[in-house]
């Protein structure tokens, strides 16, 4: 760098510019606050979800199903029109609080709906707690949201990370599998899922031989697959979701491990990915609070309506988004659209029985669903329900949730 | 770990390293010969992968996709050089960094507009579909062996091109002394354009052949980019031989770092800190020999 | 003398304008400007290295993130830590880290310096990302902002958005003045000389390594200040705070604003963050959601700046200022 700088001239320049800086600062602070027009009468629903990256499909599915449920219930909330504000959170935990803050404080949403990634969720929950805005979680299963950080205004319509994994522990024992290697992404969701499985598995006499981890969202499985083969466990429990799950299943098959070592997992491994994996998942059994093939009129009607409206098949993520809207509808109905009556809305949501495609369910005291966990098997491109692994599971025990009453 | 597993992990590491070499060779060529740092290098890896996906869907097979994809990449490289890169030769490295950083953002969004934001898989071509059984419960996918073979073939091809052909001679001369080459009447501008296009095409090609074994997803260029820099720096900027040695070294360190267990005084070092190993290696090499293993002393 | 009066007037004008922000803007924008001022401090600290010492550090975010982690680790979980003990501690840790890393990396130069600073920041990134020292990949949270407690007296409350803004503004001005004083001193002259021609300085007898290391440590400490404040603002401490993207992005702010001007990088920080927000808020045009693809606009903007504005935005303003003042043989 050989530019010579004349210090005095430079000083003058930047003092002048300091004025520009300060002037611009004041102006830009003024203009937006003047220009902000409130959409009178409409309920603002903020959708903060991943629309890019490995979870993009999930964000889209949740959004579509949410809107479908609203449409099916008259297109309004408690009689009032809805304005959607969407924001792509890119599954980036570093920007989670920032993004949520923008929706709550700048865009002034009445309801904050989101998100998928557990790390991002922590930031959202923090903002929701500080601002008191009504917050519905349509996927992220991070335990803290309905444990240490629980709050009256925070609800979840999906699951807690360990919840679908827990029954798989018993299913494994029943299959005669006594020692297992676990493999998952090393972040909140992966860790809590493995912990849920481990809890029930070891409780029933099983042994975890080794815990293998991969940084999120890394998909280079080769070295770890080799190690699994060398360890020769009786079973392998994995947690992956979205694009990563699809790749894992293909790699597992390519490494010749399919059929040699039983693969166990919560249903995220096979939900929404079957179209992309061909035969790699055939016969795989997983536990989840939903299954495409749930044989009830309610589920069939939902799947038909969704496929018709969006030309894609719904999965568990869509169901969760759908139920989030149903929950909100129930709450808003009770107050006839008066969003200001927070306490009444919350009370209504706590009491609501959600008529979900997964089956009817209610909220736990910590605002997490108490629901049945199904056992499913992959047949072609469908997750066929072959039984119920556990009924009305309320897990994890929310001993750290102190909800002010 | 037993000997059999050790050999397989060795194979894993070498395969990963060879692919890294392919991606990094483009970067080291461009920087060594043209003196231009291209931070957007990873984006072309992504472009290659998405091209492989979309073209193989259109043509129904991967081979045609790769062929067309390479041609398109070369054209893209030449276009970019003509439009933007040639204005950077005289400029400071910082401005090259700034401009190519901007390019990363542009390419990421163009990708989003053209191909969308989903994660995709690319079908492995039928001939390469099998797996070779290595132990009683582990098989090695043929497609990975093929990738390694292609990388080696390309490495040999590059060596021959640069060391044994006239154009290679011009490239080497242009790297040493641009003005002299120009005053001798050679069109150095054309040489640079070709080198840049070659660099881009190599990276895109790497993305294309890796697509069947990795996923095609937004942001896939970012991780590759940073590892590429490590390869180039360890190997020595401008040295293709160095890039090969460094890439294999990194492939092995990365692979074994994930599976061996090292504990010192009760503190678990590996595989917990596997992510750090490559950077530790880079820092160590740089502090010992700043110009890299095969680099020229500045 | 006219120029000096002008300079003073503009200085006060800009301070006044910044001070007025909390009274005319609403909460979200006060928070936004707090963030801008914090990034301004970060950018200025890097300018000390890039613009004044000629050290292009591609791992500056390491010191930014470390300070944030120190605060998060030292704070009791649901209670406030003490501002006056934790801030110096965080800055101190960042400074020591910079001392250790600087002692190693300053043995290289040029492109290798860039790369080895990157390597060290990546190592720190993976240290926090892959281990359980502090929450791993998802990071940890500072649930309650530190309290400004001097033996019971609380001069201000950081939980109040306006108070936080003014504290940050005061620190921003403080850092600016500190750097100005340092750079105008003899130390600053030596640094200038090192940037222009290190060999000459060495032959004149100056221990250039020590001067460079001192700068590196000062820059690291100030980056730590920025990181501490950033951790306070949203309470999120995350390995991404020290990832190469963060280092790259602050480097962009410095170059965009105009390196070696101190105010340039602060301006660069403001421009980048306002542009980012502005681009993201653009409405849909012709069916394409422009806001979603804001990075296209941002990237194109950066490319244009790199091509057309070699001295960054400060260069542009200087150019316009020179034209307005009309220098002697005027040309258009």
Protein architecture, described:
The complex is a heterotrimer of chains A (405), B (298) and C (332). Chain A is built from 12 helices and 14 strands. Chain A has 405 residues and is α/β, with parallel strands linked by helices. Chain A folds into 2 domains: 43-159 and 294-367, Response regulator (Rossmann fold), CATH 3.40.50; 162-288, Rossmann fold (3-Layer(aba) Sandwich), CATH 3.40.50.2300. In chain A, the strands form 2 sheets. In chain A, strands 6, 7, 8, 9, 10, 11, 12, 13 and 14 form a 9-stranded mixed beta sheet that branches. Chain A has a 5-stranded parallel beta sheet with strand order 2-1-3-4-5, with helices on both faces. In chain A, helix 3 (93-106) packs parallel to helix 4 (118-131). By secondary structure, chain B is mainly α. The longest helix of chain B is centred in the N-terminal third of the chain and has 32 residues, at 3-34. The model of chain B has no long low-confidence stretch (mean pLDDT 85). Chain B has helices at residues 3-34, 41-59, 62-83, 93-115, 142-164, 166-176, 178-183, 188-210, 220-235, 240-259, 274-288, and strands spanning 131-133, 139-141, 262-264, 267-270. Chain B has 11 helices and 4 strands, in the order ααααββααααααββα. In chain C, helix 2 packs across helix 10 (244-257) and helix 3 packs across helix 9. Chain C is mainly alpha-helical and 332 residues long. Chain C has one domain: Orthogonal Bundle (ABC transporter involved in vitamin B12 uptake, BtuC), CATH 1.10.3470. In chain C, a hairpin with a 2-residue loop joins strand 3 and strand 4 (288-289). Chain C has helices at 2-24, 27-53, 61-74, 83-105, 110-130, 161-184, 186-196, 198-203, 208-234, 244-257, 263-280, 294-308, 312-325; strands spanning 140-141, 236-237, 284-285, 288-289. Chain C is globular, with a radius of gyration of 21 Å. Chains in contact: A-B, A-C, B-C. The interface between A and B is large, with 35 and 41 residues.
């Amino acid at each position: 760098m050989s530019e010579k700088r004349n210090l005095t001239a430079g000083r003058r320049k930047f003092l002048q510019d300091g004025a520009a800086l300060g002037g611009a600062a004041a102006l830009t602070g003024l203009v937006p606050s003047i220009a902000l027009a409130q959409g009178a009468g409409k309920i603002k629903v903020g959708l903060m979800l991943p629309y890019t990256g490995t979870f993009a499909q999930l964000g889209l599915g949740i959004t579509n199903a949410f809107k479908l449920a609203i449409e099916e219930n008259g297109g309004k909330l408690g009689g009032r029109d809805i304005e959607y504000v969407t924001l792509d959170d890119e599954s980036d935990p570093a920007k989670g609080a920032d993004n949520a803050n923008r929706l709550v404080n700048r865009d002034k949403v009445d309801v904050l709906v989101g998100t998928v990634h557990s790390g991002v969720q922590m930031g959202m929950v923090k903002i929701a707690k500080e601002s008191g805005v009504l917050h519905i979680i349509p996927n992220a299963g991070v335990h803290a949201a309905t444990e240490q950080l629980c709050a009256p205004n925070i609800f979840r319509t999906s699951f807690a990370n360990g919840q679908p994994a827990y029954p798989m522990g018993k299913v494994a024992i029943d299959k005669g599998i006594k020692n297992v290697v676990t493999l998952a992404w090393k972040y909140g969701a992966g860790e809590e899922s493995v912990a849920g499985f481990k809890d029930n598995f070891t409780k029933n006499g099983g042994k975890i031989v080794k815990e293998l981890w991969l940084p999120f969202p890394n998909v280079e499985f080769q070295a770890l697959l080799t190690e699994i083969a060398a360890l020769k466990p009786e079973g392998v429990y994995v947690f992956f979701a979205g694009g990563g799950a699809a790749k894992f299943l293909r790699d597992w098959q390519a490494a010749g491990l399919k059929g040699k070592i039983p693969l166990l997992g919560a249903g995220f491994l096979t939900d929404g990915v079957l179209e992309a994996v061909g035969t790699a998942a055939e016969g795989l059994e997983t536990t989840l609070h939903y299954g495409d093939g749930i044989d009830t009129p309610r589920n069939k009607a939902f799947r038909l309506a969704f496929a018709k409206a969006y030309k894609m098949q719904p999965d568990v993520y869509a169901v969760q988004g759908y139920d989030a809207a149903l929950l909100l509808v129930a709450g808003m109905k009770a107050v006839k659209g008066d969003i200001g009556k927070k306490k009444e809305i919350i009370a209504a949501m706590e009491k609501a029985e959600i008529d979900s495609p997964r089956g009817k369910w209610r909220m736990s005291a910590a605002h997490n669903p108490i629901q049945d966990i199904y056992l499913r098997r992959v047949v072609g491109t469908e997750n066929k329900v072959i039984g119920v692994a556990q009924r009305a599971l309320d897990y994890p025990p929310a001993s750290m949730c102190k909800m002010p009453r | 770990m037993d000997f059999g597993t050790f050999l397989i992990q060795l194979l894993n590491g070498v395969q990963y390293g060879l692919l890294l070499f392919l991606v990094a060779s483009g970067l080291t060529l461009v920087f060594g010969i043209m003196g231009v740092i291209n931070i957007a290098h990873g984006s072309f890896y992504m472009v290659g992968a998405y091209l492989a996906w979309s073209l193989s869907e259109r043509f129904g097979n991967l081979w045609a996709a790769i062929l067309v994809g390479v041609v398109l990449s070369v054209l893209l490289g030449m276009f970019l050089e003509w439009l933007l890169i040639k204005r950077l030769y005289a400029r400071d490295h910082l401005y090259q960094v700034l401009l190519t950083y901007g390019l990363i953002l542009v390419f990421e969004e163009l990708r989003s507009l053209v191909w969308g934001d989903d994660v995709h898989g690319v079908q492995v071509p039928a001939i390469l579909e099998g797996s070779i059984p290595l132990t009683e419960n582990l098989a090695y996918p043929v497609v990975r062996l093929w990738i390694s073979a292609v990388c080696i073939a390309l490495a040999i091809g590059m060596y021959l091109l640069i060391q044994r052909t006239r154009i290679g001679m011009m490239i080497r001369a242009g790297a040493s002394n641009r003005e002299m080459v120009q005053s001798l009447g050679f069109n150095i501008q054309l040489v640079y354009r070709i080198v840049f296009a070659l660099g881009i095409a190599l990276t895109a090609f790497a993305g294309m052949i890796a697509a069947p074994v990795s996923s095609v997803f937004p942001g896939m260029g970012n991780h590759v980019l940073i590892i590429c820099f490590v390869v180039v720096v360890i190997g020595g900027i401008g040295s293709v031989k160095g890039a090969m040695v460094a890439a294999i070294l990194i492939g092995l360190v990365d692979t074994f770092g994930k599976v061996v267990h090292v504990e010192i005084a009760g503190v678990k070092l590996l595989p917990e800190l596997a992510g750090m190993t490559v950077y530790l290696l880079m820092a160590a090499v740089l502090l010992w020999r700043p110009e890299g293993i095969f680099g020229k002393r500045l | 003398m006219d120029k000096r009066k002008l300079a003073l007037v503009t200085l006060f004008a800009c301070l006044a304008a910044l001070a007025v922000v909390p009274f005319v803007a609403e909460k979200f924008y006060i928070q936004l400007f707090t963030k801008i001022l914090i990034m301004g401090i970060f950018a200025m600290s890097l300018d000390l290295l890039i613009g004044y010492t000629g050290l292009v550090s591609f791992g500056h975010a390491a010191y930014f993130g470390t300070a944030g982690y120190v605060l998060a680790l030292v704070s009791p979980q649901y209670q406030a830590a003490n501002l006056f003990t934790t801030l110096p501690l965080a800055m101190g840790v960042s400074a020591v880290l910079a001392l250790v890393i600087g002692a190693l990396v300053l043995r290289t130069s040029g492109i290798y310096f860039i790369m080895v600073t990157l390597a060290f920041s990546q190592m720190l990134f993976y240290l926090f990302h892959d281990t359980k020292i502090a929450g791993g990949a998802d990071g940890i949270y500072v649930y309650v902002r530190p309290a400004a407690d001097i033996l019971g007296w609380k001069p201000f409350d950081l939980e109040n958005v306006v108070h936080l803004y003014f504290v940050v503004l005061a620190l921003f001005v403080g850092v600016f003045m500190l750097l100005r004083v340092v750079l105008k001193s003899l130390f600053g002259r030596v640094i200038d000389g090192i940037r222009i021609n290190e060999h000459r300085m060495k032959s004149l007898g100056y221990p250039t390594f020590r001067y460079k290391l001192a700068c590196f440590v000062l820059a690291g400490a100030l980056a730590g200040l920025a990181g501490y404040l950033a951790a306070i603002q949203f309470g999120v401490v995350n390995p991404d705070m020290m990832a190469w993207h963060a280092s790259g992005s602050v480097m962009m702010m410095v170059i965009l604003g105009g390196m070696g001007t101190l105010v340039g990088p602060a301006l660069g920080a403001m421009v980048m963050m306002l542009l980012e927000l502005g681009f993201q808020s653009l409405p849909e045009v012709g069916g394409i959601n422009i806001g979603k693809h804001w990075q296209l606009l941002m990237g194109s903007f950066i490319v244009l700046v790199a091509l057309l504005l070699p001295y960054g935005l400060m260069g542009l303003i200087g150019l316009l200022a020179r034209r307005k003042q009309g220098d002697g043989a005027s040309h258009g």
